[in-house]
Every structure is written in structure tokens, then in C-alpha cells.
Amino acid sequence: MSEHIIEKVSDFKYIIRKTGAMRVPAVIYSNSAYLDLIRKDASYLQLVNVATLPGIIGASLAMPDMHQGYGFPIGGVAAMDLDEGVISPGGVGYDINCGCRLVRTNLTYDEVKGRITDLINALYRAIPTGVGSRGSLKLSKKEERRVAEEGAGWLIKKGFAERYDTEHTEDGGCIKGADPDLVSDRAYERGQDQLGTLGSGNHFLEIGVVDEIYDEVAARVFGLFLNGVVIFIHTGSRGFGYQVCDDYLEKMGRYTRKAGIILPYRQLACAHFASKEGQDYYRAMKCAANYAFANRQLIMFHAAQAVSRTLGKSPENLGLRLVYDVCHNIAKVEEHLVDGKPKKVCVHRKGATRSFPAGHKNVPAAYKSVGQPALIPGDMGRYSYVLTGTQTAMEESFGSTCHGAGRVMSRRQAIRESRGRQITSELGKKGIYVIAKRYKTLNEEMPDAYKDVSKVVEVVDSIGISKKVAKLRPLGVIKG
Amino acid sequence: MSYRLIDHTADTAIEVTGVDMKSLFANCGYALFDILYDTKSVRCVKNYEVTATGAAREALLINFLRELFIKFVVYKIVLREIEITALTGDTCTATVRGEVFSPARHKQKADIKAVTYHNVKITGSGAGLKVSIVFDT
To answer: Shortest CB distance from A67 goes to which of B9, B109, B118?
Structure first.
């Protein structure tokens, strides 16, 4: 497979030209240092495999945080034709609608700097975290079906959300057309006690502070100000979504054989978007996406309550307000310009964030003038970023940008390399209080195990597929 | 233990050996239990039947592991012993022993999202079979 040559197009943009079974070229947004990592972990070969899928349009795209995934690379974007093209669970990932949520407050760093430990401890008690964590809400199957169909909106009826929250969530916190009948009993079982739980791995909840502002106007529109305190949540659809993905990978494996689609790799199992199998997965995937919106909403509700109790002020008084909630593992039908004409396509974002520009019809009314916020978490010791979507993203990357730092070390390697180090106290010295259910998680998730997110963001900002608004610095983190 | 952890950028990967196909399947199952929870605390008080099908032996192995995994994440059953009762080209049946999961007595060690097909290939022959399995974590 070494015949694939990665050519430089311009600073931060590289191309693998169409050869062999590729239907389109592969385009990588990266810098020279990260390109070496991509060459080493062979994730570019996964990108090439995606380029062979039926009905792929334009190019198989990779964001600068690309690394090896299953089927699609993580950091991959692919748009498919609705008639000729396919939909692939591997192009969404196991954690369907894994995503991020940012909450702003009126609080300044000076007001909370002495209370971070109290706040993080209170949040840790309020939000079930870590391996096997179970939520306070045990849902009946009937209720779970409602969550699958209505997403975060279901929580309005339960008193855990307000209209404002869903208005500031991608797709209003509910992707329409979800069909709960297409979700297996196994998925409902796995999801019944996990709503409102963070989970483990790279998922986290963080209290941070706005460290730097690059775009004053957009920051103001998002309610962010220098030294302002924020809450950042990163999690997804938990066991419910993992099971939906697993169930449909199996079904699509059968479809692929039946339809005679030649795949270089089993985890790329897919079905024509227009086929019954394709539509079934799409509607089941929407159920999981809606579960994830509700999950992050419930976590935010409990976080707001915990912060409010700790500081003795109401959430309204503290100015606790959702800035935005975005998905970074999803497939969606969107309208994009293809050969100069508007066309509906199915955009797979696997470890990539939507990045719609100012004026776009899917951007919330309040953000129409500046564009959709894209939330990019970094590792727990450095930074996270708030970006805005751009017109360039519509032209270059089907309205997509990066989704995070991306790992450079395997979990095992991180544990080996962190041997003898005290990650908690290292972070403590940087003014970051970290609490985790398992000590091992902190080693697996140590900052050095990730790329420097500021370098990743530099690439997408320079290419213009999103623009920097603010940099956030962590003060306290809860991990699984 | 007839498995070892190997490096994979995002997740947990293992390499498992077996002296024949049945032992390879069983050893993969033990490895899965060992990654998920502390197997020493599991009492073998109940028998459960597991059946998996798959067109090729790799698919059969992954489907078998998926069924064992489901026992834990869906039915909340922890397992310790595996007896492969039949293994043909496309079907695997096994009697597995364990008990109902109790958070007070059984320590869960890891969350796994799924057993993947990532680069799965059974290699070797005779008494020296080997396979790598990647779990999405």
C-alpha cells in the first residue's frame, strides 16, 4: 500500500491523488509534524479506503487531529450521494453523537479560584462518572423510546431543560425522523440507567476560564468574556449508542456481501443510503444521537445544580447558560454545493465538528451574525477552544472542522511513559485540580498522550475552515 | 493467562494464543472477562448457553465474543468458565459459568464499547494459533 504519495498542496493542505480503487482523492489538513504521525500510524490508508466507497463526493477528507480508528479514521469527513452513495456506521463511530457542550457563567476567575476544589468535588458527587457508572434516573423502555425520539426536548417535559437549551443545541437537541422501533432491546437495556452519566475514557467535565479572546464580537455574542468561568462537557450516547452501532455493523456486513460491494476492510461495512438497510441504520442512529443530546443536557442540569448549591446562588444569578452543544460523531443529510449546484448529501463526521457559517439556516438565531460555535476540547492539562464556522468550511470540507487534540500515544504507552510520575500533582502545580474514578485513567489521559490542540486549531484556523474565538484553560476536571 | 495486551492508538488490543481452535476461542473469552472485571471474585454458580454464528472463522470468533460481552453489558452476568461444546465452520456453542453481577462483590475494571473486527486475523496452524482482537474503549 506504500504506493500512496502524500503531496503538499499548500501550507496545511495535502493530497493523495486518486489511484487504484479510489473514486475520489484524499485530502488531509495537517502540518508537517502531524503528517509524520499520520504516516506512522497508517491512518492515511484508512482515509484512502474511505475514498473507495460507492457514491463518495469530492474527496475523502481528514482533519488535523486524524488518527487511526475503525473503518474510517478518527478525524475523517466523507459526503455521500443520496442515490448512489452509502451510509456507514464505521463513518459515525461506536459513540454516536459523542460531542461537546459549553456553559457560560457570570463568574470571574477571581471569584472562584479559592473554590475550585469544592466545586469539582460537588460536581463529582452529582454526576455519575467512570467505569460502569449508573444514573439516578432509571428509564422504562417506554421512556427510553421517548428520549430516542425527542432527544433533549423530552427533558423539558421532565423539568430538566428549557426551550433556551434546545435552541442552543445542534439540530435543536433532536434529529427528526428517529424511529425507536429500529433500536434493539439490547440497546435499550444498555441505555436504561446511563442517562446523565459521563462514562470513562476521554470523556470529561471541566471547569475552565476564558484565557484569551481572538474575536471580541463573536465572544460577546456567545456570552464569553476574558477571565469568565465556563463549564465544558464531553460525552456521548453511552451504551445505547455503542449497541446501535454494533447491531448495525453486523446487519450492514450482511448487506455489503449481498449487494456485492467490495470493501477493503470489514469495519467499513455500509449500505446504500437509499436502501432499507441504509435507512434503518440512519433512523436508529438518530435515536442514539437524540439519546446523547439528552445525556449532555441532563449532565448540564445536574452540574448547574451542584455549582449553584456550592456557591449558594441560583443558576440564573450565576448567569449559567448553555452556549452551544455540538456533535462530532454523526452522519447527516445536509445541503452543500456540489459542482456549483446545491445538492443534498449525507455527510459523515467521525471525529469532526460541524462548522456552519454566519447566516446559515441551521445556525441558531442568536448566532446568525457570527456563525455556529464549534467546541474543540484539548487534553486535560492544556487548552480547549471555541471556534466559529465559516464559508470556507462550506467550500472546503462540507461544513466541517476538527474535533479535538487526537491521541499520539496508545493508552498502554501512556501508562508506560507516565510510570513514576504523579499526574495529579503535575496538574496541581499548573493550577488544575483533577479527580478521577480510577487513577489509571489519569495516566492514560495524561496531556502528553495527546497532540497539542493549539497546533490542531492553528491548522483549521489558517486553512479557514473555522476561526478562533476564544481559548479556554482548565481549572478543574472530572474524569472517568 | 494466554493473552497479552498490545498497543493500539485509541483503544485496548490483545494478542491471544491457543493450542487449537476451541482453546483459542475460549482464551479470547477469558481475556475479555479479565479486561472487563476481576474474574477471581466470580463464583461459577450458574450455567448459561451461548451460541454464535459467522460466515468465516474470524467473524465467528468476533460474534462469539460479542455474545459473551452482551451477557455482561446487557444481562449483567459475570462469567469465569467457558466450555466450547461445539465448533463448526459457521457455528460456535458454549456452556459458560458464572453468576449475576453484583457491584458490591465484583469489581468492574473497564468499560468497553464493543468488540471490533479491526484487523482480526487468525494466524498459525496446529498447536500454534494466534489472533489479535481490538476492543473499542
So the answer is: B9
Q: Give B3-136's CATH code, choosing from 3.60.15.10, 3.30.43.10, 3.55.10.10, 3.40.640.10.
A: 3.55.10.10
H helix or E strand, kind and range, residue B70: helix B57-73
CA distance A88 to A84: 13
Q: Would an 8 Å CB–CB cutoff place B56 in contact with chain A?
A: no
Backbone angles phi, psi at A462, to 5 degrees: -70, -40
Cα separation, B120 vs B127, in Å, equals: 19
List chain A residues with CB under 8 Å of B117. Answer: 70, 249, 266-267
Mean pLDDT of B29-54: 96
| pLDDT, tens digit (0-9, with 9 covering 90-100), for A268-325 | 999 999 999 999 999 999 999 999 999 999 999 999 999 999 999 999 999 999 999 9
Contact call for A132 and B111, based on CB within 8 A:
yes
Residue A6: all three cell numbers together: 502524500
Active site residue A403: yes
C-alpha cell at A441: 485513567
Give residue limits of the domains in chain B: 3-136
Could you tell me the domains of chain A? 6-479 (3.90.1860.10)
Distance between CA atoms of residues B69 and A271, nearest Å? 26
The H-assigned helical ranges of A208-275 are 216-222, 238-259
How many whole angstroms separate alpha carbon A241 and alpha carbon A284? Answer: 9
Task: Give the nearest chain A residue to B75 (CA atoms).
Answer: A189
Residue B8 scores a pLDDT above 80: no
Please check whether residue A309 touches B, CB under 8 A.
no
Q: Can you give the three-state secondary structure of A167-185, one letter per residue?
A: HCEHHHHCCCCCCHHHCCH
- Inter-chain contact A411–B12, Cβ cutoff 8 Å? yes
Range of weakest confidence among A309-313, B46-50, B103-107: B103-107
Interval A444-476: pLDDT, tens: 999 999 999 999 999 999 999 999 999 999 999
CB contact under 8 A, A41 and B9: yes
What is the predicted ipTM?
Answer: 0.91
